[in-house]
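Hi support team,

I submitted a single chain yesterday and got back a structure, but I'm not sure I'm reading the token output correctly. Could someone confirm the output below corresponds to the sequence I sent? I've pasted both exactly as they appear in my results page.

Thanks,
R.
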Amino acid sequence: MSNQSFGKEGEQAAEKFLLGQGYKILARNFRTRFGEIDIIAKDGDCLVFAEVKARSGSGYGLPEEAVTAAKQRHLIAASQIYLSQKKMHHFLWRIDVLALTPSRHPRESGDPRQNENGGFEIRHLKNAVSG
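Hi R., thanks for writing in. Yes, this is the structure output for that exact sequence:
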């Protein structure tokens, strides 16, 4: 499986996870000159800009460790562009990170918890980035 298709599977699993938590998805893959926001959602009255990081193994560290200081600055700038374009400055908002790693159980295991998240273990780090 290519890195790109693995990343897409991770984004789909993260979206499904957020929907299961009661979030409403507003946009996917919102591109700006500062980079892309993977998922934009509403959690009650709060806008959530979600960065999805998936890793197939631990060779490069934990997925959330890839959200560097530079990436955090880009996420904040991209979020502000979205708020400006949609005239949503008055909304409460936050930036979350969804860190995904493959489930320890094979997909064929029949484990319903594993199947709910598309074969991934998901750690949802709320308010992971602040400006």
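A quick pointer for reading it: Confidence is low (pLDDT under 50) at residues 108-114. Let us know if anything else looks off.

Best,
Support desk
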